Structure formats: C-alpha cells, structure tokens
Amino acid sequence: MKRMSKGLLCSLLAATLLAGCGNGNSGSNNGNAGSTSGNDGSSGTAKSVTLKMFIAQPRFKEHYDKYIADFVAKEKADKNIDVSVQLEMPTADNASQILKTRLASNDAPDIFAIHAVNEIPSYYKAGYLEDLSDQPFAGKLLDSVKPSVTTTDGKVVALPLETLSWGYLYNKTIFTEHGLTPPTTLTEMKAVVEKLKAANVTPFVLSYKESWIPQLVLPLAVGSMVKTKNPDFVAQMNKDEGSFSEMKSAIFDVFDLINENGTAKATEVGGDDGAAAFAAGKGAMWLQGPWYAETILKSNPDLDFGVAPLPVSDDPNATLINLSASTSLAVSPTSKNKEVALDFLNYVLDDQASNAFFQALKFNPVATIHTYESYPWINDATAYVKEGKSVQDPAIPQAVKDEVGKGLQAYYAGQLSQDDVVKALDKAWKSYNKVNK
Questions:
Q1: I want to staple 227 with a disulfide (CB 3.0 to 4.6 A). Which of 182, 189, 302, 391 is the partner?
Q2: Are 85 and 210 part of one and the same domain?
Q3: Where in the sequence is the domain holding 190, given as residue range(s)?
Q4: Average pLDDT of span 82-95
Q5: Beta strand 47-54 with 111-115: parallel, antiparallel or unpaired?
Q6: Where is the signal peptide (predicted)?
Q7: Domain-located, residue 294
Q8: pTM to 2 decimals?
Q9: If pLDDT is split at 50, 70 and 90, which confidence band does 44 have?
Q10: Residue 2 lies in a domain
C-alpha cells in the first residue's frame, strides 16, 4: 500500500487544447456546452469541461501530467470535448482531512484518490462513492484485486492503482557484502543489526517527518498478530472490547530496535529525503514499502534492493508480507462532469496506454490487460506470498492510523510513553466507532 503538502493546486493541464468542435452525447456537464453534434468530432460549438482531480501522490506528478495530457487529447479526438484538468496533489499527511472536509462541504472533486482497505467502507456508507460496477474497467480487474474495491453489497466503487506486497526495504548489495539474509525473527534482526554496526554500516534509514511513515509499523504488527495470536483483534476493537495493549510488544519491540539503530534527525527527514538516503546506501534497511521504488531509482538507478517481511517477535510464523490495495480512484456521485470523469477512469485501464503508465509508476499489475514484466522487488515479495508468509492488510480505520503516526512521532521524540500511545489509539478507534455505527 495504502500509503500527500497542504492542499495545493498543482496544475491546469492542456489549456492550450481548448478549441474546436462539439459533441452531442455529453451526459452531465458544467453548463458550458453550446450547440453540439455527434461523437465523431464533427463540426459544432465545442463543450468545455473542467475536471477536478485530487490524487495525493505528488512524487508522481510528472507521470500523471503526461497521462492526463494524453487523455485530454483522446477525449478531444473521440468525443470532441475540450477538457481542462485541475490536479491537486497534497501529501499523505494532509490529504485525508482535506478530502473529508471537501466532501462534507459539498465541494467534492470529480475524481479523488482514497485508500481501498481503510476508507472505502466509511466513504461508501456516507454516500461519497459512485457505483462503478458497470464501467468497462471493472471487467478487466484481476480476481485477486477486485474484492479490495468492492463493497459488501457487491458494488465496485473505485479503480485500484496500487496493490501492495510489502514489509521493509533492504539493500541487497550491503546484505550480500556482509553475508546477511533477511531475518525471520526479532532475535535474528538484532543479530543483523549488530553485524552491520560492527562493519560501520548504519542499519536503518529513519524518516519520520511525515507521520504516515512511522505508522507503517502498525499494520505490519497488527497483521502479524491477527494471523498468529489474536485473530479477533479488529472485530473486538470494532465492538469497543479490545485494546492496543494487546499489540504493545509487537509494535514497540521492533520500532525501538529500528530507532536505536538508525540515521539521525528522523523527524527532519521526509519520504523523498529518506528515499535519497536509502538510495545512497546511508542505511541498509528502511521501514518503507516498494511504492517508493520509482523515487529511489531516480536517485540511484543501479541500486539493488529487495522487499522482506518485518519480524515483530521471535515467532517466525508472524514474520509476514502485508498484502493490500491502497491508492484507488473514485468518482463523486455529485460530479457535474461524470461522463468525462468515467472516461478518465476507463482510460487508466485503457487496453493500449495502461501498461506503460503502470510500468512507469512501478505499480503492480491490477488488470488482465497488464502484461509487463514484474520488478525484482515484486518477485521477492511474491516468493514469500507463495510460501504462505503473508497476511491481508488489517482493516484499521484511517483515523487510527493518523493517530498512531502522530503518536509515534511524539514517542520517538520522547514526548509520549508507550502507554500514552496505546491510550490514544484506543480512544481514536472508539471515536471512529461512535461516528460509524
């Protein structure tokens, strides 16, 4: 996965393309249509549509800009609709709250990105998600992926961009040079750490400036414990009958080990800087997912890195790859430009264009039309999955993940104790239950 700077308007794309002819099959529009004709680009007064998108992946802006420009050209050629796109790309730390505020105030973007596992249930219940079940892209989704964007009543309500197989990243060259293999228990991880330190290699890159990064330890720890020792944890929390005190050791034992053996000034280092540090070999491991592959390889195209499951205890059965679908695109039911919004979603899984787009982003294949070769780090994770060493991402409310991110930042800085963090998480989940029951 899941897995955004202040809500900043990043781009108005393809404004220079705003000229031309009309289209009669316009569906919903923004009221700017003049006289129209057919869908074949024949003469008439052009309809202009401004499409608002909210996608909290600013590190991929260049790729989105290009793909959206291609879509604008295609929409003009196919339907004679002049499309201007306003693309807003906040950071992960702010995106969720910004989007919720927009939706609640009837200022919804036409297309917006949400986390499939964490956010679809509550957003669907609130009526914020268009039913996309009959869209062409839905029939292309892989059987292993489609459930992640399908509601309990069987409706497809988003298009998955990122499916994730993750744990932590490690520098394969450093590991090979020092005769190391990914550890299967916490004790083995401690031995790896000591061997690296003895060779004057910093074991971990730390990057906690953005709160969503330290929170990554939470789904890894909870998922591992749910699969091995406490299968009812999420259900208990949803009924106000559980507590994160049951997860305390799984969360903090490995988090403390990482913090005690990592790079300096973690709260001053964000994701992009962390990627650059990892790419430069300033740490052998990074608590991060392969969604940063494109950024890492921009800094060092020759870096050989892999994905491994993070040990959270001395039970090797609890050392598991997390399987998830995170960033997914949804359409607002209140969109005045729904036809064009749906056209864009279908273009994201276009039979011809989609492969190059997903490959450039270094995302996993999500559809039957995706035929590009998997990346080495994806193959690493897949090998663990085939051995049964994986777990589905636990359904932890986004509000709880937001709280743990801030809590672990404060814990790292010495401002909160472990018990303080646990209490804050329990409170956040109970607050979520009150709103969503």
A1: 391
A2: no
A3: 165-323+385-436
A4: 92
A5: parallel
A6: 1-19
A7: yes
A8: 0.76
A9: low
A10: no
The CATH number assigned to the domain holding 258 equals 3.40.190.10
Encode pLDDT of 173-192 as tens digits: 999 999 999 999 999 999 99
Q: Which residues contact 260 (CB under 8 A, 6 or more apart)?
A: none
Give pLDDT tens digits for 281-303. Answer: 999 999 999 999 999 999 999 99
Question: Which two structure tokens, joined as six digits, stand for 363?
Answer: 């995302």
The arithmetic mean of pLDDT across residues 23-38, rounded, is: 36
| 63/121 same-domain check | yes
Which residue type does 403 have?
A: E
